[in-house]
Amino acid sequence: MFDTVLVANRGEIAVRVTQTLRRMGIRSVAVHSDADEGARHVHEADVAVRIGPAAARESYLSIERIIDAALKTGAQAVHPGYGFLAENAAFARACAEAGLVFVGPPPAAIDAMGDKIRAKQTVTAAGVPVVPGAFGADIEHAVAEIGFPVLLKPSAGGGGKGMRLVHSLDELPAAIESAQREARNSFGDDTLLAERFVLNPRHIEIQVLADAHGTVLHLGERECSLQRRHQKIIEEAPSPLLDDETRARMGKSAADAAASVGYTGAGTVEFIVSADRPDEFFFMEMNTRLQVEHPVTELVTGVDLVEQQLRVAAGEKLSLTQEDIRLTGHAVEARIYAEDPAHGFLPTGGTLLALEEPSDRIRIDSGVFEGSVVGSDYDPMLAKHIAYASTRDDALRKLRSALGDVTVLGVTTNIPFLRALLADEDVVAGRLDTGLVERKLDALVANPMPEDVLVAAALERALALEPRGETVDPWDIPGGWRVGQPAWTSWLVGAPGDEPVRVRLRGRAASAEVVVGDGEPIAASAWHEGNRLYVRSGGVTRSYRHARDGEITWIGNWPLREPEQLSRKGGAGAAGGAVSSPMPGTVLLLKVAAGERVTAGQPLLVVEAMKMEHTVVAPIDGAVAELAVHAGQQVRLGQQLAVVAPLQE
C-alpha cells in the first residue's frame, strides 16, 4: 500500500478522499490555487502545495504542475477525484511516465469510454443493449430513420453541454447547428451522436468495481432521475423502480461493459430505462471515475469505494465477491449548491458567515466550513447531504428534516428548493422521470419570505437603533415618542431583487406591535443572546442566527437589504428605482450612461458569476440618476449598482 497520496482536486471530494486516506494511515497531499489557499481541503491534508492562480487551466487542469507537486512531496500515487483531470487519459499516462500510480482505470479504458460513439460500439460487441442511434457527417439523414423524438449529444463530452431534444424534422437543422457550436466550444470537437429519446425516461446507473486480476463486481444501482438541464439534483439507492431480476440483469450488463475495456477500479455504467417498461434498459455511457453520488452506494453496501480504489491501484485483489454485496436499507443524497433557485438559479457566493449542519443525524460530505469564501472560479457545489434509513420513506423524511435544520449565512443556497422537491407527492411515491423537475419547476422554486422573517427583520432594525445606557431620552427612541401613544414606524423589508413588503412597528423592540402588509397588529418582542436573535410573535418564540455583510442583513438563511436602505433609496414600492446586484460577481458590461433616459425593463448592465451572465434592468421609466459601478468591478450581493429616478425628479 502507498505511504503518500496526492489528491488532484478541491472541494468536498478532496476532503472526502483525504478522510479515507487518514483512516488508512496514508499521508495526504493537497493541491490548491491562489483562490483556495484557505480552503477546507487544504486545512485537512497533511501537506498542501500551491499549483497556480485561480484559473483552473493554470492550476487544477495543469498536468505538469500537479505531477511536479506529487514528485516533490514524495507521493507514490495520485487520486483525481471527479471533474478536472479525472477522466483525462493524457493525465493518467503522464502519471505513469513520472513513476506515479494513477488511482483510476487504465488510459485505454478512459479513451474507449470517453468517446460516446466508440463506447457504444464497444459495449454492443459485448452484448450490452444500447439505444438505437446514429452518428457521422450525415446525421440529419440518419435521424430521420431513427424517428422522433431524438436526443443530440456531443460525442466528446458530457455534463449536459450541447445536448438538444428534437421533436420534429423542422427543428432538426437549427438544433444540430446549436449543438455543434456548444460542443465545439466546450470540448473542441463538434461530432454529434443522435439517439432515440426514450419516453418517460429514468436515469439509473450501476456502480462497478474491478481489480487487475480479472474480478469485476457490481454494487447495485442508483436512481438519478431527478435532474435539471441534465444535471443531477437528488440521487438514491436502491431505485424504487427495479425488481431483483432486473437489477441482476443490469448489474451483469454493467460488469460486461467494464470488462469489455479492461476496466480496473471504481466506475459507473449509466443506463436509461423507460418508466413504462422498467424491464427494458439501454446503455448510455460509462463514467470512468468516482461519481458525485457514490455515498448512497457506500451507505447501502457498507463498502468504502475510495478505499477499494486505492487497494486496486496498489495491485491488491478485491477481497469481496459478488455474493458479498448486499443492499440494505435506503440512502438519499441532495447536492447543496451556491445558487438561488427563486431567481433563475443564479450563482451566488460570498463568505460563509455562519454554518450549522446536523452531522449527528446524516452523513455530510462538505468542502467548506464557517468562514470559507465561496467564489466564482469553480463549480458552485458546497456539500452533499446524505440520509440513510431502513426504508425509502424514512430516508426521504430524514433528509428533508435535516435540511430544514441547516443554517447558512452569507451565501444563498438551493436548500429550500431541495426540501420542496423531496416533499413532492410524485417523488415521495417514487413516480420519477428525468422531466419531473422541469415540469414542476415553478412550484418548486416558489419560496416567499415567511412572515416571521419579515417581523424579525423589522424588530432587529428597531433593536439596532435603540439607544444604549441606563438613562434613555424618549426622543431618541426610534418608535417615535408622542403624547398619548407611540407612533408607527414603517419599514420596507425584502431580499435583493424581490418586491419589498411594508412592515409597521409601534413601540420598543422589547414590547411592540407589528403589522405585516395589510394584516392585523400582533404583539411581538425581540432580544439578542450571543450570536442569535430571539423573536416572540403571536405567542411563538423563534431563534435565528444573525449576521451583517455589507448592505445585507442575514436573518436565518434569508438575505435582506437593510430596511432603512430600501425605504430611503426607493427600492420596489417607493418613488425611486434603486438597482442592486442580484448576485456576487463582476460587472461585465454597462449598457447605459449616467443621465440617459430609460424605460422599465430596459437593460442597464450585465453581471457575470461562475460563467453565467445576468442582465440587470431598469425597474421604472426614468433617467439614470446614478451609476455606481464600472465594467470589470467586483460587486457583492445586494450592492447598489444604479439609481433610476422618475423624470419629474
The 3D shape can be described as globular
Helix content: 25-40%
Name the CATH class of the largest domain: Alpha Beta
Number of strands: 39
Uncertain regions spanning at least 5 consecutive residues: 565-575
Main sheet attributes: strand count, strand direction, barrel closure: 8 strands, antiparallel
The largest sheet has its strands arranged as: 14-13-10-11-12-15-22-20
Overall pLDDT confidence: 91
**Domains, number:** 5
Range of strand content = 25-35%
> What structural category arises from helix and sheet content?
alpha+beta
CA radius of gyration is: 27 Å
Count of helical regions: 18
Quickly give the CATH architecture of the largest domain. 2-Layer Sandwich
Write up what this structure looks like.
- The protein folds into five domains: 4-103, Rossmann fold (3-Layer(aba) Sandwich), CATH 3.40.50.20; 132-197, Dna Ligase, domain 1 (2-Layer Sandwich); 330-445, D-amino Acid Aminotransferase, Chain A, domain 1; 449-569, 2-Layer Sandwich (Glycoprotein, Type 4 Pilin), CATH 3.30.700; 575-649, RNA polymerase II/Efflux pump adaptor protein, barrel-sandwich hybrid domain (OB fold (Dihydrolipoamide Acetyltransferase, E2P), Beta Barrel).
- Helices cover 26% and strands 33% of the residues.
- It has 18 helices and 39 strands.
- The strands form nine sheets. The protein has an eight-stranded antiparallel beta sheet with strand order 14-13-10-11-12-15-22-20, with helices on both faces.
- Strand 29 and strand 30 form a beta hairpin.
- Helix 4 runs antiparallel to helix 5 (107-114) and helix 12 (392-404) packs antiparallel against helix 13.
- The chain is globular.
- It starts with a strand and ends with a strand.
